[in-house]
Amino acid sequence: MAMISPNETTSEDYSDYYNLTPGDYSPHNTNNIKAFSRVFLPTIYSIVFIVGLIGNGLVLCVLVKYHKRSNMSDVCLFNLALSDLLFLLSLPFWAHYAAITQWVFGRFMCHAVTALYMLGYYGSIFFMMLMTIDRYAVIVHTHTSLLSKYRSVRAIIALILFTWTLSLVASLPNIIFSQTSMSNKPNESTCSFEHPNPKWRLFFYIELNILSLIIPLSVMVFCYSRIIPILMSMKSQKKHKAVRLILVLVSVFFIFWTPYNVVIFLKFLHQLGYINTSQWYQDLNMAMEWVESIAFTHCCLNPIIYAFVGQRFRNLFLKILKEWFPLCFGQCPIIESECSQRMTTMYSCSSVTDQSQNI
């Protein structure tokens, strides 16, 4: 992720500006903007951390407690929640960094927190894509034996390990190049990306645009454009609800991540010298704070749109609440889903919405 260094200047030397790292938050040397950032960013990150921790933690609790068999959708949902939690664990450190504009946790924690941040960031996106492809294979290629074989236990484990490995590979440049260094002020240090070559900065921007927007959005649009006609052809009263959920998933992803990637692309142009002015420099820095705050909140919505929308998951969640808080939730009824026929593989004994929730 691209963040702005707190010790940067507005001179024509933009080297500090390109030392991008999570937690480098202050947009430029205007005092009122810095004061605003010290309050706004820690507040936003604290809210996202608390809400996201509760939501994703509950998802993990439900999946671990009621795990009965290897299911691709549940395994992907588990790893999606785990990715979001890794991402969220880095936010308190960046919030503290934003509040005091210096890194006090040392060199090792600079690498460690950046690793949590980037692994969670790419892991969340890649597991959303894997869930989309899984839904596509189940619904569009239901009777294709070749595609059904990948749902074996070994194949599921291999896919999960491959996805985490891919997330690690995508994160490695940022983890390796994250360094602590002294700022312009005495006795103050920063945690920033120290790229050895300007070409790495261009690679960083392009990697973010391709891996966090272009590829996942293309996968979602392609898969869902094939899934929707099949859902609409089914004789089910809940097919419209499933289609609406699909549209919500795509729309939410597009709305939350497109502004961030647009700013990243503008920074790419800025690096190439097409919009190389101090005004653009300041505007992009300020814009990054807002679009990152919007993008960060997506990890709070993942538990809602991928888990709690489904009736089956809500029933399991309610069972946990009854066990933990019997006085408060003991009288809450659990609504069982009705199912009269197998619509498709993994589309049985729960609503169409339950099966499309993990797209």
UniProtKB/TrEMBL annotation:
Topology of the protein relative to the lipid bilayer: Multi-pass membrane protein
Entry keyword annotation includes Membrane: yes
Biological process, per Gene Ontology: calcium-mediated signaling; cell chemotaxis; immune response; positive regulation of cytosolic calcium ion concentration
Cited Gene3D superfamilies: Rhodopsin 7-helix transmembrane proteins
Annotated InterPro entries: CCR1-9-like (IPR050119), Chemokine_rcpt (IPR000355), CXCR4/ACKR2 (IPR001277), GPCR_Rhodpsn (IPR000276), GPCR_Rhodpsn_7TM (IPR017452)
Domain G-protein coupled receptors family 1 profile: 55-306
Record's subcellular location: Cell membrane; Early endosome
One Pfam family from the record: 7tm_1
One of the record's GO molecular function terms: C-C chemokine receptor activity
GO CC annotations on file: early endosome; external side of plasma membrane
PROSITE patterns attached to this UniProt entry: G_PROTEIN_RECEP_F1_1, G_PROTEIN_RECEP_F1_2
Keywords linked to the UniProt accession: Cell membrane, Disulfide bond, Endosome, G-protein coupled receptor, Glycoprotein, Membrane, Receptor, Transducer, Transmembrane, Transmembrane helix
Bilayer-crossing regions: 44-64, 76-95, 115-133, 153-177, 202-224, 245-270, 290-309
Family: Belongs to the G-protein coupled receptor 1 family.
Name recorded for this polypeptide: G-protein coupled receptors family 1 profile domain-containing protein
Organism, scientific name: Hemibagrus wyckioides
